[in-house]
Amino acid sequence: MSGTLILVRHGQSEWNLKNLFTGWRDPDLTEKGVEEAKAAGQRLKALGVKPDIAFTSDLTRAQHTLSLILGELGQEGLETIRDQALNERDYGDLSGLNKDDAREKWGEEQVHIWRRSYDVPPPGGESLRDTGARVWPYYMTEILPRVLRGETVLVAAHGNSLRSLAMVLDRLNTETILQLEIATGEPIVYRLNADSTVASREVLHG
């Protein structure tokens, strides 16, 4: 058995609450999001988890979530690496729009395709495949080697960047990945084998 990889999607953001496409825009957490992040930290503490290093994105909502989790774990000074490779999918021209307004502008079917297809990007933005194309190399070069050395690695990021990682870890295909929803503030704890395959996967539900 090698190390442990913990994935946490940020708590509810101000734009999640307003039903806006967020992408690379940078709203912070709501009060509920703060509570979700703290609860995630409490669940990890109850499991006896002590990360050796943390990774997060360039965006405030993920960084704030991470700091709240580390506060609950009593590890405020933990080495943390921030990189935009872990940013949320870029929604391009949809960013900042209410999802209902986007449906009025482009039609429900088209917006559904942009949101739920694997490889069709919105105008000026990224598809899930595009997101994976920057997440996967970063995971392989920066995160996975640490896990395989036996470290416990915490990653606080976003729904689509974490779905990209889950696609690799859980061996999902381009169809099954579309069904995967990652809830805000619910840690997913993977224990990896020495060959980087998954030995166990546990979701810490609220």
Automatic annotation (TrEMBL):
Q: Extract the Gene3D superfamilies matched here.
A: Phosphoglycerate mutase-like
Residues that coordinate or bind substrate:
9-16, 22-23, 61, 88-91, 99, 115-116, 159-160
* Site annotation Transition state stabilizer: residues: 158
- The active site consists of 10, 88
Give the Enzyme Commission number.
5.4.2.11
Query: Which pathway, per its entry?
Result: Carbohydrate degradation; glycolysis; pyruvate from D-glyceraldehyde 3-phosphate: step 3/5
A Pfam family (short name) is: His_Phos_1
Q: Which GO terms describe its biological process?
A: gluconeogenesis; glycolytic process
MF-aspect GO terms: phosphoglycerate mutase activity
* SUPFAM superfamilies assigned: Phosphoglycerate mutase-like
InterPro entries, alphabetized: His_Pase_superF_clade-1, His_PPase_superfam, PG/BPGM_mutase_AS, Phosphogly_mut1
Top-rank taxon of the source lineage equals Bacteria
Q: Which reaction does it catalyse?
A: (2R)-2-phosphoglycerate = (2R)-3-phosphoglycerate
- Family classification: Belongs to the phosphoglycerate mutase family. BPG-dependent PGAM subfamily.
Q: How does it assemble?
A: Homodimer.
Q: What does this protein do?
A: Catalyzes the interconversion of 2-phosphoglycerate and 3-phosphoglycerate.
Any idea what this protein is called?
Answer: 2,3-bisphosphoglycerate-dependent phosphoglycerate mutase
The source organism is Nitratireductor aestuarii
Identify the coding gene: gpmA
